[in-house]
Amino acid sequence: MKALVLAGGFPQITLLKQLKARGIETILADYYEEPVAKKYADKHYQVSTLDIDAIRKVAVDEKVDFLITVCTDQALVTIAKVSEDLGLPCYIDYQTALNVTNKQYMKKVFVENGISTARHVILGEFDEKAIEGFSFPLIVKPVDCNSSKGVKKCENIDELKLAFADAVNFSRTNTAIIETFVEGPELSIDVYVEDGKANVLCVSNNDKIADKDKFVIFRGRCPAKEGAPVLHLIEKTAQQIADAFGIKNSPMLIQLITDGTQVYVLEFSARTGGGTKFLRINRMTGFDVIKAVIDLTLGEKPHYEKETNNQKYLVDDFIYCKPGVFDHLSGFEELKAEGLITDYYLFKWQGAVFEDIGNSGDRIAGFTVMAESVEELRKKHSEATARMKVIDQNGDDMMRHDLITEIADM
To answer: Cβ distance 213 to 152 under 8 Å?
Structure first.
């Protein structure tokens, strides 16, 4: 059996390993020359995962039995389309993949089904009249991007015009959303839908870099510091979304904001969150979402069993860099051996060039700290961050230590 894996990022390393453990030959498609997952695949094609025709050709030429990816958004459309064209198995059909990766359609379904979301308009060309009655600040985002690409907060009409033009350029359909800004913590909700029932796996707080207009995540904290009423609303909203989009068996990621009494859905997708989310879910719940996606694709039915009496505290921190050329990480292996960090993750490759921090995809690495109390978590985190370094080609530390703040209340 042979699988075509789309995207060669960190989560795909685990996907490739699990496929190989099942005796499945692996072909990787990624537009980078040296993606971090390349060495774990049997063969690599340097093609974009968004190029449907190119991916279809690879699938046909290699005579693959199925296409698959995890923890990535837009590649879902490619997988669903090519699988449908070639009659190959896929856990999500092409129309549903389109629906859950396009914010324009998504917002329409939210409104039609009473799913709470921010007031918004969707435009292909900027029209000031379309936002009459809206109050600044406003948020602008492309309808079909992830990793915070093209997302900006605007305080006035001049900023809005510039941000809208940028967002449209990021969008493959040249379309952007303008929506009202909701004040409150952002939560990341990972869900597994089994036979139509939405099971909330993990609720995390997303901490973002202090920037007046960008939304770049530098930390995920779990469990989220929210009370029972908000958690109940989250469970209700997850089920509403699964029902509205006809999702029966699939992972699901929901991004939302809460003001403490209500939740407002920003977006969602039929996938697990990116980065190290699959590991966070496994550590907090024991559920392996990557295994579940493989099982679903191969026609098997994963089952989620909720753990009880499982009180853990966890933070995933993401590391960004000063401008420069990456060479290697320093201190991380020792910190892991000492138990100060649970694990660490390299998202880029030696020689990767870093410039500005524009979106969450610009992170170089990440690490996890776990503990049985908040006090222990803070102590481990403080010592670990003081000792780790990211070394550039000149031997200097290029890590942005200033972005790794102390852990807030949990």
So the answer is: yes
Main-chain phi, psi angles of 309, to 5 degrees: 50, 45
Fold of 186-297: D-amino Acid Aminotransferase; Chain A, domain 1 (3.30.470)
pLDDT of residue 243: 97
pLDDT tens, 164-203? 999 998 887 889 989 988 888 889 999 999 999 999 999 9
User: 126 and 287 in contact (C-beta within 8 Å)?
Assistant: no
Return d(Cα 381, Cα 315) in angstroms, integer. 9
Element (H, E) at 112: helix 103-112
Contacts of residues 30-38 at CB distance under 8 Å and 24 or more positions apart, as own/partner, are 30/6, 32/8, 34/349, 35/7, 35/8, 35/9, 35/349, 36/8, 36/9, 36/10, 36/346, 36/347, 36/348, 36/349, 37/5, 37/7, 37/8, 37/9, 37/10, 37/12, 37/13, 38/8
Q: Which residues contact 61 (CB under 8 A, 6 or more apart)?
A: none
**Interior/surface letters 201-239, b for 16+ CB within 10 angstroms, e for the rest:** bbbbbbbebeeeebbbbbbbbbbbebeeebbebbeebbb
pLDDT value of residue 147: 55
Residue matched to tokens 């980065």:
275
What are the contacts of 42-48 at 24+ separation with CB within 8 A?
A: 44/8
CATH superfamily, domain 313-403, is ATP-grasp fold, B domain (3.30.470.20)
- The fold adopted by the segment(s) 119-180 is Dna Ligase; domain 1 (3.30.1490)
Could you read off the pLDDT of 240-298 as tens digits, one per residue?
999 999 999 999 999 999 988 899 998 899 998 888 899 999 999 999 999 999 999 99
Residues of the chain with pLDDT under 50: none
Specify the CATH class of 2-94 in words. Answer: alpha beta
Domain ranges of the chain: 2-94, 119-180, 186-297, 313-403
Fold match flag (2-94 vs 313-403):
no
- How many residues can be counted in the chain? 410
195 and 296 Cβ atoms separated by less than 8 Å: no
Q: Which of these, 127, 6, 9, lies nearest to 56 by C-alpha position?
A: 6
Helix, strand, or coil (residue 239): helix
